[in-house]
Specification:
The complex is a heterodimer of chains A (292) and B (330).
Chain A: H1 3-13, E1 15-16, E2 28-30, H2 33-65, H3 70-94, H4 101-105, E3 108-112, H5 120-128, H6 130-143, H7 149-166, H8 178-183, E4 185-189, H9 213-216, H10 221-233, H11 236-250, H12 259-279
Antiparallel strand pairs in A: 1-2, 2-4, 3-4
Helix pairs in contact in A: 2-3, 3-5, 6-7, 10-12, 11-12
Chain B: H1 7-30, H2 38-61, H3 65-83, H4 89-107, H5 109-132, H6 135-140, H7 143-146, H8 155-163, H9 171-192, H10 198-220, H11 224-257, H12 264-299, H13 303-322
Helix pairs in contact in B: 1-2, 1-3, 2-3, 4-12, 5-10, 5-11, 9-10, 9-11, 9-12, 10-11, 11-12, 11-13
Classes of the chains: A mainly alpha (292), B mainly alpha (330).
Chain lengths: 292, 330
């Protein structure tokens, strides 16, 4: 089995079907661990920042208004800390974007597994479970600093046990936290993308490069879309390398022209030909695909 | 325009609609639905269906990866916006208090009984152990929690703590601390339910044992009745909340171990959702308990009145949760 087929399978394994009432499958893409950890860390940093701000405000309030108001400052701080710790995630995920600031930055959102609306009970369930997934391991982590060796062992055992919950998402194919499991949710990657310019601008008049049908049929959809990515990223080095490889594959000598112009022309021609093929029901997944 | 389908002309023809949909969605997500004009609200579903059909066409005819990804993202956003039922926060809260919360609590009645029994066992164990041997008191109650109330204290000083305990200043801060502490413990006992409910039961027993130890301490100085009043004025609400949190944890643990006819995943999800509703209410109850503790106990120093308030609160909660009500009564 080729690496490419494996790649397609891995891609398909990340997709989850969600059919809208109109009958179109939105085919949501699950967020991977590499997106969720930075999102969570960013949320932690934001929460720490807000807590620092709250502490400074309360301290200033207590000092300027004298001791009588110190108690009020303490109450505000206690309640503020409580709300921040427990309701930051809940309030943010109940909003229309169903994502905290960290999730927004990583292009993630929380979705009910059934495709229904994300209701408050789901959001509360998934976030209250953070108590054992994050705060409990954290408290075990700091617990052993205080006492002797016996307590250190207890803390270690506790840490190992709570680690089960912490690393839960890595051991199931849907990458669900314990909270996701209980709430019936999962986190999908739904980044906001901007639609940039259309790459392919074929000019009817005298193309610079002409390719034979055999040359255009060397690659499949996967390679074409990789080429699209290369052209969009526009790294001079990558373009030179890819240009050299494709020229070699097509059996063309370097004609002294720019690699980018060559690749654009090839992309245009190949895409036009493949898209025409699509209209006749021919889709060649990649260069190893011989079914067409 | 009757040209043959060409992905490029297709994109040029539809692009403006997509951008309009994107613009409306961005504004609605940033601010609220109210920031949209009537015209935009009417256009939204039409544009959404247009984008969906564009997505279907693009998947079949276009090899432009960026276009397909863009449309998938746009349609996903629009789908969740169009099909999300938007009720105001006020009406959602009204539905929660009128229907969802009591119904969820009623649904947990078996677990609530179990949780109550476990707490009761804790109280009895704490009381009997400390009554038999006062040395148990120090093992059960951390020194910070006891705060001088131990077997070395005189009956007089113990009586003092019951009536003008924390001494006015710092009292409401202490109540706020207790509220946040109790709420945190409740959430923990809910979350620990996932570990088959065992740690939840341990937390409940320990919590009950502490109360039992205090009761034994005060009873040994002939202050049992007074202590009861001090405890019940807020304790009836607080203990009820903790029992409910334990019940929510038990429900989760039970459904994970014994999913019944459903799949384990489906059973866990159903349990998690109903338990979460209960937990949202538990936080509200603890807030009430905190107010009763901070204000009520400070202002009311008569034992009879303390018992009356505590028992009245208990009766109100029981009636609110368990009195049968007409079906469909929103």
């Amino acid at each position: 089995m080729s690496d490419l087929t494996l790649h397609h399978r891995a891609e398909a394994a990340k997709r989850r079907s969600l059919v809208t009432p109109e009958g179109v499958d939105l085919s949501l893409k699950l967020a991977d661990i590499g997106q969720r950890i930075p999102a969570f860390l960013l949320d932690l940093v934001i929460m720490a920042g807000m807590l620092t701000g709250l502490t400074i405000l309360c301290a200033i309030g207590a000092f300027t208004l004298g001791l009588t108001s110190a108690e009020i400052a303490i109450i505000i701080w206690l309640l503020g800390f409580f709300l921040l710790r427990n309701f930051y995630f809940i309030v943010m995920e109940m909003g229309p974007r169903a994502a905290t600031f960290g999730k927004r930055a990583s292009g993630l959102r929380v979705v009910a597994r059934s495709g229904e609306r994300l209701t408050a009970d789901r959001v509360i369930a998934r976030n209250m479970m953070r108590e054992i997934e994050f705060y409990l391991p954290l408290s075990f982590l700091f617990y052993n600093g205080a006492e002797g060796a016996g307590d250190a062992l207890t803390a270690l055992a506790g840490l190992a046990w709570t680690g089960l919950f912490l690393f839960f998402p890595m051991f199931n194919k849907d990458r669900m936290r314990v909270g996701d499991l209980l709430a019936g949710t999962w986190v999908v990657s739904a980044p906001r993308r901007k639609l940039t310019v259309e790459l392919s601008q074929p000019s009817e008049a005298a193309p610079d490069h002409l390719f034979s049908d055999a040359q255009l049929d060397v690659y499949g959809v996967y390679e074409l879309q990789t080429l699209e990515q290369v052209l969009r990223d526009n790294h001079a080095e990558t373009i030179a390398t890819v240009g050299r490889v494709i020229r070699g594959k097509l059996g063309l000598a370097w004609d002294g022209g720019s690699d980018r112009a060559f690749l654009s022309a090839y992309y245009d021609a190949a895409r036009t030909r493949m898209e025409r093929g699509l209209l006749f029901g021919k889709r060649r997944a990649d260069k190893f695909d011989t079914s067409v | 325009m009757n040209r043959p389908a060409n992905p490029r002309s297709f994109r040029a023809a539809r692009e403006e609609e997509w951008r309009r949909l994107e613009d409306i969605l961005t504004r609605a997500e940033k601010k609220s639905v109210r920031s949209l004009s009537d015209e935009e609200l009417l256009a939204l579903p039409v544009l959404y269906r247009g984008a969906l059909s564009s997505l279907s066409v693009a998947r079949e005819t276009s090899l432009d990866l960026e276009l397909v990804t863009y449309l998938e993202g746009l349609c996903t956003r629009a789908y969740f916006f169009v099909y999300g039922v938007r009720t105001s926060a006020g009406s959602r809260a009204a539905a929660f208090f009128a229907r969802d919360w009591p119904a969820a609590v009623r649904g947990l009645w078996r677990e609530t009984l179990a949780s109550f029994a476990v707490t009761l066992i804790g109280v009895l164990a704490g009381y009997l152990l400390v009554a038999a041997d006062p040395a148990w008191f120090d093992t059960m109650v951390p020194a910070a929690m006891a705060d001088g109330r131990d077997f070395d204290a005189t009956a007089e000083s113990l009586r003092d703590t019951l009536y003008h305990d924390e001494g006015g200043r710092g009292l409401s801060a202490f109540a706020a601390f207790l509220f946040t502490h109790n709420a945190q413990v409740c959430m923990l006992s809910f979350a620990l339910g996932f570990a088959f409910g065992v740690p939840t039961a341990m937390l409940l027993v320990y919590n009950g044992a502490m109360a039992g130890a205090f009761l034994a301490l005060f009873a040994s100085h002939g202050l049992g009745f007074e202590m009861g009043g001090w405890l019940i004025i807020h304790g009836s609400t607080e203990f009820f909340a903790i029992v409910l949190a334990g019940a929510a944890g038990f429900r989760i643990g039970w459904s994970v171990v014994f999913p019944g006819e459903e799949s384990r995943l489906a059973a866990a999800t159903a349990a998690g959702r109903s338990a979460a509703i209960v937990m949202a209410g538990v936080v509200v109850m603890l807030l009430c308990a905190g107010l009763l503790e901070g204000l009520g106990r400070q202002l009311v120093t008569s034992d009879g009145l303390r018992y009356a308030i505590g028992l009245f609160m208990l009766a109100s909660w029981l009636a609110y949760f368990y009195l049968p009500r007409r079906a469909g009564n929103v």
